[in-house]
Structure formats: structure tokens, C-alpha cells
Design brief:
The chain is of the alpha+beta class. The protein folds into 2 domains: about 150 residues, no CATH class; about 130 residues. The protein is about 60% helix and about 10% strand. It contains 12 helices and 6 strands. The strands form 2 sheets. A 4-stranded antiparallel β-sheet has the order 4-5-1-6, with helices on both faces. The chain has a two-stranded antiparallel ribbon with strand order 2-3. The chain is globular. The two termini are about 25 Å apart.
């Protein structure tokens, strides 16, 4: 089964009013007063209090985290791909995030005029009416959209060009799809690597920090690995046997552990650390080295 049959492209677009704006006048005055260089900094105003927008920001953060957790990067335009069997679950979850988003926005909008008035006293001479969208426009600053598309198929090239050009374009499409597929699959390896590496770091950390504070092993470390094992198994778009085997190994060797076992038994902690080290070493060998920080962020 091809990746075109197993996955779809998705793109999440969320926009929100940040209520922040750079003040060129105050920036210039501050630079002049301090004798600093013009490029040394800038003054950014918080146009209203933070709390009224926090509910919206919380929904956005959760929606973006979920969107990223069930998909893999695709291309350079912000698209990601999701396994076909996750689509129904994804749609339902994102519909709920959308509902929460607009509910929070609708709570904020009626407060907007009063928040502008309050800002006059907070910002002093830095207050400027022109910094604020008018009441009729503020709603348009908030949008929550999801787009779906199929993955391009080089065998379904319908543009009317010569056979030679069609063959050339099809070859380029095929090459690009393969490149994007390889990148998506490496992202899955990267996510599994990052989860195991985080656990290894926690297992290797001293029980007491340099300041004398305890550095406990949290339950969330194991829960994160369990989550990755479950979702990555479903995101194995190409049925990579090595990835499937590694996911199975991590599940059997690390997901069966409990926080209490690790805390109460030094022997189990040492054994778990050695197991995680062996898995990391094997993954590094397969991946041609440890993934970069940028790769881990993008995955």
C-alpha cells in the first residue's frame, strides 16, 4: 500500500490577536536616554492585561501540541501528514478544540472596549488608540482552520503537456514525494529517540541536585514513552520493519516499568538505565547518529 493510500496532508492555521506592539517612539527615547546603539533593543507594549486572552492561548497551545503529536512533517510549507486510521479521531478532537477556541474568543470580545479603557492608565503616555483594532475588526483577528489534502501521486499527472514533459514532471514529483516520505519517517525515529533519551537522562540524573534539592523521577517520563509507542506504531506510514521492531522493543523493555519500581529499587533503576542506553545506541546506529535539536523540535 502506497503512502498516498495510507496518509493525508493536513495543515493547521490558527491566528490570534497578540495584544503586543512595538513602540518606536519609546524605543527611540530609551536608546537616546541610555546611549545604547540603535540595534540594541526595542520596546514592546502589552496593549491589554494578559489574563483576558489566556484562555484563548491555552486552547491554541493544546491544539497545536495535539496536531503535532499525531502527525509527521511533510515538505517545507508547514504541512504534516496523518495516518488514515487516525483521521476520524483527529477530526473529532480538532472540532472540539475549535469549539473551545471560539467560545473563549466570544467571551473575550465583549470585554474588549473596557480592556482598552483600562490600558490607558496602565500604559500612560505610551497608550495610543491607533494600536487597537476597532470593535468590528477584532473578531477577524481570531481564526482556527484546518485543511486536508491528498499526497501528490506521480502516476496521476493530468496536465496536458508532451509525453516527454509529463515523464519529466512525474519523475520530479516521485522524487519529491520520496524525499518528503524519508523526512517524515526520520521524524518518527527522532520522536522515539527523544522520548527514550529523555528517560535515560532522568535515570542518569543524581538524586540530589547541586543545590541539594531532590530530582525525582516523574511518572510523566514513562507516560510520554507509552504515548509515543502507541502513536508511532500507527504513524509507521511505510511499514518500516526496523522502526516497528524498535517500537516493540521500547514498549516491552521500558513501558512496563513503573515509577515506584524505579524509585524503590536501585537495581531496577540501573538495569533500566542500561536498557535505555542500549536502545539509544542501536537507534543512533540505524539513524546514522543522534538527531539534532532542530530535528527534534520539528518532529
Amino acid at each position: 500500500m502506497s503512502i498516498q493510500e495510507k496518509a493525508m496532508r493536513i495543515n493547521l492555521h490558527i491566528s490570534q490577536w497578540t495584544a503586543r506592539k512595538q513602540d518606536k517612539k519609546i524605543t527611540a527615547e530609551t536608546i537616546a536616554a541610555t546611549g545604547a546603539q540603535p540595534e540594541s533593543g526595542s520596546w514592546t507594549k502589552a496593549l491589554i492585561a494578559k489574563k483576558p486572552l489566556q484562555a484563548i492561548k491555552d486552547v491554541v497551545t493544546a491544539a497545536r501540541a495535539y496536531h503535532k503529536s499525531v502527525s509527521a512533517p511533510w515538505g517545507d510549507g508547514g504541512d504534516r501528514i496523518i495516518a488514515a486510521d487516525l483521521l476520524m479521531e483527529y477530526r473529532a478532537k480538532m472540532a472540539e478544540f475549535s469549539r473551545q477556541f471560539y467560545a473563549a474568543v466570544n467571551e473575550f470580545i465583549p470585554m474588549y472596549p473596557d480592556l482598552i479603557d483600562e490600558a490607558m492608565s496602565h500604559l500612560g503616555t505610551g497608550w495610543n488608540q491607533e494600536d487597537y483594532p476597532v470593535q468590528g475588526e477584532i473578531l477577524n483577528k481570531f481564526q482556527f482552520k484546518i485543511s486536508f489534502d491528498t499526497i501528490t501521486d506521480a502516476n496521476d499527472f493530468r496536465v496536458q503537456v508532451s509525453d516527454l514533459e509529463a515523464a519529466r514532471y512525474s519523475a520530479e514529483i516521485r522524487s519529491q514525494v520520496q524525499e518528503d516520505t524519508d523526512r517524515a519517517m526520520r521524524a518518527l525515529w527522532t520522536r522515539l529517540y527523544a522520548a527514550v533519551k529523555h528517560m535515560l537522562d532522568r535515570l542518569s540524573a543524581p538524586e540530589l541536585t547541586e543545590s541539594g534539592r531532590r530530582a525525582p523521577f516523574h511518572k510523566s517520563v514513562i507516560e510520554n514513552i507509552k504515548t509515543q509507542v502507541d502513536i508511532l506504531d500507527r504513524l509507521n506510514f511505510t511499514n518500516d520493519p526496523e522502526l516497528a521492531e524498535m517500537i516493540d522493543t521500547v514498549g516491552k523493555e521500558l513501558c512496563s516499568l513503573t515509577t515506584d519500581e524505579i524509585k524503590k529499587s536501585p537495581a531496577i533503576k540501573i538495569e533500566s538505565k542500561e536498557t535505555a542506553e542500549a536502545i539509544i545506541a542501536k537507534m543512533s546506529a540505524i539513524m546514522g547518529g543522534a538527531p539534532s535539536i532542530d530535528e527534534q523540535k520539528a518532529a
